[in-house]
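Q: How do we represent a protein-ligand complex in a form that can be generated token by token?
A: Start from the inputs.
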Amino acid sequence: MSNQNDFDRLSQRLNLSRRSFLKGTAIGAGTLAAGGLMEIKYGKEAKAFAYEPYPRDDQLETVVTSCAHNCGSRHMLVAHKWKDVIVRLSTDDGRYQKGGYFGKDGNEEPQLRACLRGRSYRQRLYSAERLLFPMMRVGKRGEGKFKRVSWDEALDFVARKMIELKNKYGPTAILDQSYAGASYGVLHKSDQIEGLLGRFLGMFGCRTSSWSVPSYQGTTSSSRWTFGTIQDGNEDDAFAYSKLMIMWGWNPAYTFHGGNTFMYLRMAKQRGCKFVVVDPQYTDSAAAYDAWWIPIKPNTDAAMMAGMAHYIFTNNLQDQEFIDKFCQGMDEGTMPDWAAKSPNGKENFKDYILGKYDGQPKTPEWASKICGVPAKDIKKLAHMYATTKPAALKASWAPGRNAYGEQYSRMAAALQAMTGNIGKLGGCAEGVGKAWHAEAVAYPYDQYSNIWFASIKSDRWAHCVLNYPNVRREEIGLWPRQDATDGQIPNIKGIFWQGSDWFNQLTNINKEIKAIEKLELVVCMDSTITPSGLFADVLLPVATHFERHDVALPWYKGHYYIHRPKVIEPMGEAKTDFQIFTELAYRIGGDVFGKAYNPKANRNYFNYNDDVDEAYLREWWEGRVMHHQGVEMSWEEFKRRGVYKFKLPRPHVAFQDQVEKGVPFQTPSGKIEILSSELANISDWTKTRYGYHIPSIPKWIEPWESLNSPKTSKYPFHLVSPHPRWRTHSIFNNCSWLRETYEQEVTMNAADAKRMGIKMGDIVEVWNDRGKVVVPVYVTERCMPGVLVIHEGVWMDRDENGVDRAGNPDFLTLDDPSPAGAFAYNTVLCNIAKTNLEHRPGWDKLATARSHVFRREHRREL
Amino acid sequence: MAAETTRPKKDTKKIRAAIKRRKHATYTPVKPDMQLGFIHNNVDCIGCRACEMACKDKNGLPPGPRFRRVQYIEGGTFPEVFAYKVNMSCNHCAEPACLPTCPTGAIFKRKKDGIVDIDSTLCIGCRRCEAACPFGAPQFDPEENIVKKCNMCVDEIEAGRKPYCVMACMMRVLDIGPIDKIWDGSLDTVAIGPHDKVVRQVKNMADIELTHPSIGFVAHSKGKVE
Ligand code: SF4
Ligand code: SF4
Ligand code: SF4
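Then emit the structure tokens for the protein with iron/sulfur cluster bound:
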């Protein structure tokens, strides 16, 4: 590569002909009179590149890799390194793919440009919070005092303890709380259901697993019942064809869902698509897409949707042909014969909406009283949605993270179906939104991959530990088993965290803190110290994705693979998760366990893993990707380029084959199940993983707390805790660059604040019966009255009274999930007041101090 | 944090000589052969600040200095509200206010493309340019005790590429080009939408008459100046 000036190439890119280039500009000439512009003459022209010393990109080694956290997307990172140090990161610029060149972009193979978090990865990689050596607790649990130990000592301790727990308490003693923090590689996979830890504990014969997904279990349950799959998503380029986009609780300007969704939405806007945002906040998405903002009371979405359904049915605006052909239980005509005799499935959706069963028609006026949206707006939106074709109702996850959140997701699916917007380009059936399907597994995958001896709703572990053995199965959402152990309450005595900061991220942290004291083994495997890690007995340093070989998958949308070589050697004594589990397997069960767990390796894998990892990945590429997906690029070429982008014959739309070619849906009936066959046939709910009754059709169910409940006399505010833009859950909370872009704060409506004498920047406490947090306040007109917003994921920092000075909203959330497993993160009443307590913004004092000075250059236009 | 930056020792002799030269300097206005400038779409920008992070990383900046700053602007009264973003780094002005204030002559404007840069070996950290610039572009680096600012990633431009912030923009609403082409709308860029008009001045910035900044915007309806 050359360092010489290359204006020709640039000028072409800048649409600049040689002639206009030479002509120069007119501005320069006109400025003399203004008198200010002077060049200081040195005799020779100053060289504009005034940094010293500064290695230019072309003097550094370029390595293509990607981000690796659980954000909703997957973008390319390009490491520019000097020897074993990453000097800076750039991203996809079109050069790396096959047939690529600098600047190549566009609809078919868009660049995979990393977001702000990806761009700040060096701060995480080289942070002071990196774990570099194995450590063991020396103080009390949670005190955060550790001493450095050898790998031998740490692993022997863990192996001994694991055997002890299993012998003493049985096969449910160890709780698998692996999560996606180190995930989205095909080889080094951390995951709550299947992954390296699950397979390790399952083979060991001691594992309680956690089945409900914190972010979107309500939606997952809904998609499974309604469509029989969570693959109800379109690829993001399909959004460019919508004429109407209803973003329900969806803020893709913050939380990415697919690598370029926001860009394709811009394309839709340029083509005349109208945008609507239904959300308690006027989000950046609302602003960027110039949307009609409909502020709605949190946790009342299903009521508003029922009101829309009422308007559509009573005005006969539904797509009856679509309903008759594809739906079960939408109305009387689509009820299956067996329904009348089923224990739970006698009602159809239309008659429920019209009030035939309970005498209450779900009119827009009825809905308005619940959700706070004027009836005329509900009607207007319903009319727009039913008459604009194609229209996308993108029902996002946040409104489903609620008490009875699954009802919101199912209600949305009913609206999508009754307007015939499923399986059509420009329409939308999301839901979960998983679209193109990647070949995701290169780690050994066999009959041991998901063995568990008990499985519970993920945020019920503390309840289970604290009340054992006086726990009923429905309280913890115990998954049924087909053997004699069905119904046995797990006796949890240890926790493993792999790529997981769940202690900081699940609901009702104060209850978790009580529960963790009862455990006998807490292991945390991570690449940085985390708030969870502070409660561990053993800290095992894990190599980041820059320090191990893997291939990155797109998240739920996107059709490409990105190669992730070992860019640098692991720092300190860090090892990969796979190395750690393999070595533990050898220590616990000798060659038999070791070989079975990692068939391609021998015991030296702990010291040298390059060849084995390469062998797994090559086998995956050649056996699955090339074989199953018709990819012709060789593994060698893929490694050289770093990226493979699929070109799809048409924009991928979920259920297009079902609607166009009559392929059955994956439900028991082969239809879109507005009436769920599964739910309709349940009579004993305690024997199901749900534990409690769930209606077979979408219904409005009053949540246990909301702005409509009597509890508002004590706690008048409803708190929601969305995913932030500047962290991925709790990851990146320690990065000072990102800290400059935000402040952990509570967002509050301006009129509410005025009434309470609260001003922008005041420090407030926000509390309810479960806990208290201290944060600065952001006063704005962009948030509806009665609602407070605190973003999830900040690293907890408790004072001696248990008050969280960092502002983690999960001190206020309730660990009572919905029957279908939805975490009730957004079902929280609380109160707010000015306080003298000090807010502690984080562990990196310098960065956060500056974030006050440089925080949002906020200016209000009045 | 990033790898330790090696800080070259200041050459006091060189600086003294520069000040002396600066005192006796004769000034000739720089008329760039072609002025490069930025274009930012205030409406379609989602405010994600990927551009800011890319810049921090590229320039290896500690917490504090931010060459590129995405301003969040909001207004109205619930529920009739609006919001938009104005994104600025250094505007590489036609008449840079920063330049003549520098006592060592460290700031200069390039003839070739109008880029305004600061020679880091001559900067003594007096922060006069910081005070003079109406747009807040020069940023004090407390670790190196000098002022730094956007140099339009001149190394990337010289390599035939575009600046890091431009190549980071997730929405493709930030771009660079010859400023006259940006202003007259003839630049081929997706930053400007099919129905968009480019303006030189929006509400949330200093008067452009002060320095004639080389930047264009697609303005939000509430950000337009009559
Ligand atoms: S924006 Fe400020 S620092 Fe940049 S050239 Fe203009 S006056 Fe100088
Ligand atoms: S051009 Fe380069 S230095 Fe200037 S703001 Fe963009 S990334 Fe930063
Ligand atoms: S990267 Fe682009 S969309 Fe994001 S803040 Fe910067 S200019 Fe706006």
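The CA atoms of residues 74 and 433 of chain A lie 15 Å apart. The two ends of chain A are 53 Å apart (CA to CA).
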